[in-house]
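re: ur question from yesterday

yeah so i grabbed the chain u mentioned. its 337 aa long if i counted rite. heres the sequnce exactly as i have it in my notes:
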Amino acid sequence: MIKQVLRLVSPGLFLPCFATESVDDNKVIVRPVLLSICAADQRYFQGNRPAQILKKKLPLALFHEALGEVIYDPSGELEKGTKCVLFPAGVSGLNRDSNYEQGAFFRSSNSDGFSQELISLTHEEVLPIPDQKNYKTYIFAELMSVCCQAIDRVLRLTTLNNKTIGIWGDGSMGYMMGIALKSLIPDCRLLVYGKHDEKLMMFSYADKVVNIYDADDVPELDVVFECVGGNSVQSAFKQILQKINPLGLIALMGVSEQAQSMMTRPILEKGITILGSTRSVKKDFEQSIELIKNPNVLNALQKVISKSSVVTSANDLRKSFIDDISVDFKSLIWLSL
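ran it thru and got these structure tokens back, copy pasting raw so excuse formatting
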């Protein structure tokens, strides 16, 4: 079977390619219908990865946040037209910590992502959406799953009940991290730190929002989830160390391509634990889908849709990425190849 794939061949340039897709009696043929641009996709598009990484990775079909529609399931388990969340980590991502193994399979990283006309997936990679009519918001299942895993990994080290928790970052990741925390740990006290007052107003579920330029240095946080990333990680981490209590825990979730310096004295003096968490496995996806079923969560997530566009060509896709650079939260793409 011949299919069209939109691949990034060099920063800023997408080209349509044609590839073959084998039909397997044990797999489901799916058509990706809705994609969400991730910060990782933008780093490839803008060329904000080291040159040797870009040379190794490209050409590459982007997108690991995707919803699809079943075209054909030889087993008859899934009806044609069933809307599903598409699992980007493949069968290797079924175990709890498998995504952190060297060379772990992950779409839009070491394998083509979902900007494809059709794709053949195992049943384990296709998660039916509970609400088939209002399915759009489940596009955030992947990002929410990353939040679910981060919470799970923190809970392996400490309790979060009745704790004061801080989130650094007022973007999409910080927003969804807060929703996940308030859903799973409702008795926590949640403070959100950011630098954009208009974005912080969106965090209505938080117990307190703080502009980082107004924050004092009094320690009060037991656990912090860093959702900043990029070039601001260093300044964010410095401020986190001022605000966190002794024996606190910091979960780093924001990706930075630049080398960051880190003062070890406050880390050692306070006995701080640091962990990194940026991916998820299937059980995290299943948990995130259950969270999104909640009408309050569903309504809250709809607020982070900043822009939607229809993509029918490589030029459309390039324009969507350019437009996404200036949006506050998430850009969605309806794919029609």
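noticed a couple things. The CA atoms of residues 51 and 236 lie 27 Å apart. also The radius of gyration is 20 Å.
anyway ttyl
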